[in-house]
Amino acid sequence: MTTRRELLTTGAALGGGALLAATAERRAQAAQPSTARGWERSYSGGSPNRPHLAPGRPGKDYQPIETPNGTTLPWKVVDGVKVYHLLAEEVDHEFAPGLKAKCWGYNGRVHGPTIEAVEGDRVRIYVTNKIKAPTTVHWHGVFLPNGMDGVGGLTQKLIQPGETFKYEFTFRQHGTFMYHPHHDEMTQMALGMLGMIVVHPRRPAATYRVDRDFVILLSEWKMTPGVLRPDPNEMTDFNVLTMNAKVFPATAPLVCKTGDRVRIRIGNLSAMDHHPIHLHGHYFKVTATDGGTVPEGGQWPETTVLVPVGSTRDLEFITDAPGDWALHCHMTHHVMNQMGHNIPNSIGIDPKKLDPKVQKVLPAYMTMGQTGMGDMGEMGMPAPKNSIPMVGAAGPFDYISMGGMFTLVKTRDHLDSYDKDPGWYEHPAGTVASVADRADLARDGVKVS
Q1: In whole angstroms, what is the distance from residue 40 CA to residue 3 CA?
Q2: pTM of the model
Q3: How does the average pLDDT of the chain come out, rounded?
Q4: Quick one: fold of 212-333?
Q5: Rounded distance, CA 392 to CA 382, Å?
Q6: Which CATH code for domain 76-200?
Q7: How many angstroms separate the CA atoms of 239 and 404, rounded?
Q8: Which ranges in the chain are annotated with CATH 2.60.40.420?
Q9: What is the per-residue pLDDT across 258-271, written as a single tens digit (0 to 9) for each?
Q10: Based on the number of CB atoms within 10 Å of its own CB, is 289 exposed (0-12), middle (13-18) or buried (19 or more)?
Q11: CA 231 to CA 189: how far, in whole Å?
């Protein structure tokens, strides 16, 4: 028979043991990584000393990406390491017919070629400086040793003109990233020294694939008419807004088949502006940022995504609606070019008496914009040397009055090749908006005064 004293003693012992066990558990939890709270074990990719894997192979370990109006940086394998070579150099670049510039870029291109690799790849990237100023390369968003981060003066010496530096690290993550100088960024990035990085997952899920994987880098420029060099000192009035360093109609279309699963990787290295990129005719989901993959439960449907300066966004959708669908920045001044800037507001003005008087002194004078700016692209007015008007292109119905950050997703039920522009979409009968006839108006009781 247990006495009251024995019961109390036993209870105290049990209570003390429980207290010690709880304390030990709390200490053990405190010593463990914070995954108990749902946090990641590492926010910098973990140890940089983990062994690298065999080089990923295009067509076998990953489906190569496509950079419209651009290219992918070549590489070779040396002792199990992928070796790349970037050349920073002056480049003669054409934004669109009629507008050229002397820029700085990489490997003869503006923007630089896309660097493509696979998670686990060991990479060795040589950078040769052929411009007249010191530079560096920062691998934006990439986990790497501090001394490979490319911040001039802080993590490395500057790459002087004529020098070649070597960067070497292992990709410990997959995703969409960017590269650019981290020395005198205001000048060097404004002149075009930018590029994209795509790192594919090492073991993607067998059921997860995309049919089309596009890369688009957004940027903005100040090009004074008649001047060949972009102005790196501009902070507000950027008058050339580009996708992969081109303005519409020079932007290459994104050609797809009906039913394709499409990924568009968008990066923004503009000097000052965020860009709300809008897709017509579909919704998409934002599946990743430069910080990593967005869990499926955290994705939601959008038709417009804001891409902040210094960020990337991966969009995925299915092209289940054939047609020529616009993809563009929704800031209205970003789908126009030089001649839409610094024009006085003359909407509503009747210039009939003004123009003849001015033309006595300036025969080519014409008051612009009294009914808006939409007709400027097709007016054919003489423009200053090395400049383009609001620009657009002749469309299948009328002139398309868009320029700048504007391109097309061209989806077709049948395609001979992804590499060829399929031309304008042929709409099925009865599916195009048109002038309402009198019978329609009478039937529906619509009165037009």
Answers
A1: 52
A2: 0.85
A3: 87
A4: Immunoglobulin-like (2.60.40)
A5: 16
A6: 2.60.40.420
A7: 9
A8: 76-200, 212-333
A9: 999 999 999 999 99
A10: middle
A11: 11
